[in-house]
Specification:
mainly alpha
């Protein structure tokens, strides 16, 4: 019985790192976003809104950013699942969005990017 439990634990340990979110990898993925968005203390709206405190925020609500009606009226509250669906294909998730981005299709890259973004509170400070 101990041998089976040990084998399960070893198997789980081998699988989990591949599924874990990697903030460093997410920061590299963030390079695809930074031409239009900012995070961190002092982040400003650019072509797209600043993304501090994104998770838990309602779509179309970053102060001072001029959103499309589609984004403001989407009814989205950002969470991990919604963000993952959106970032794969923004125009499919929110038809009429101003966001011009082909999307990120790789599930692990999306998880890593999510981990990177989740570290910034509304004030831009790392949590």
């Amino acid at each position: 019985m101990k041998a089976i439990a040990c084998a399960i634990l070893i198997s789980a340990t081998a699988i989990l790192p591949a599924l874990a979110q990697d903030i460093s990898a997410g920061e590299r993925s963030w390079n695809k976003c930074r031409a239009c968005h900012q995070t961190g203390e002092g982040a400003k709206n650019l072509v797209g809104p600043q993304l501090n405190g994104l998770f838990g925020r309602h779509s179309g609500s970053a102060e001072g950013y001029s959103y499309s009606a589609a984004n403001k009226d989407s009814g989205i509250t950002w969470d991990e699942a919604t963000f993952a669906e959106y970032i794969k294909d923004p125009k499919a998730k929110v038809p009429g969005t101003k966001m011009i981005f082909a999307g990120i299709k790789n599930e692990q890259e999306i998880k890593d990017l999510t981990a990177f973004l989740k570290q910034f509170g509304q004030d831009g400070k790392k949590l």
